[in-house]
Amino acid sequence: MKIVMLNAATLPIYRDELTQLLVEANQQGRSAGFPYAIEQKDAEDSFNYLRHALAQNKRLLWIARDDKGVMGTVQLNLTQPADSPHEAEINTLLVCTRARRRGVGRLLIRELEHTAQNLRCNVLSSDMQSGSEAEAFYRAQGYRCAAFKAQSDRYSRKNEVVYYKRLTASACSSPPLF
Fold this sequence. Notes:
Helices cover 31% and strands 26% of the residues. By secondary structure, the protein is α+β, with helices and mostly antiparallel strands. The chain has a single domain (2-171), classed as Aminopeptidase, CATH 3.40.630.30. Strands 1-2-3-4-5-7-6 form a 7-stranded mixed sheet, sandwiched between helices. The longest helix is centred in the N-terminal third of the chain and has 17 residues, at 11-27. The radius of gyration is 15 Å and the shape is globular. It holds the Pfam family Acetyltransf_1. Keywords: Acyltransferase, Transferase. This is GNAT family N-acetyltransferase. Residues 1-168 form the N-acetyltransferase domain.
């Protein structure tokens, strides 16, 4: 398995596989942030929109892949309010059915956290549905549940709970990417 960061130029190469991953996750009720049944076209459009954000370094995107194709993906949203410049939001962590419970999500999060530290982010957060499998996963990765106000404009998906993790500066050993 290989973890790869995509950019605006490489995203189209994997768009079809990412689209299938999103549609599969949605059909199985595992795609946080898409409260409706997402169709193929909607999934494609979401990745087309993402290309612009990648080009402007507003988001980062990783995939996990093996010889059979894309197994998982995760995004880091770097657009935060001016009063929280050292925070970033984790979006759309998805792992395909054939790769679940094999450490793919954990490796994607680990790579995301390492990059976030290199970018001088000191807090990561993700919102999710209360009681979901995602809650147990994030707790196992060292994230803690935070108080969350439903009226907050801060989180993109407006789900029920927010998990956060403070990153340690000592683990940051590489120069900033941007």
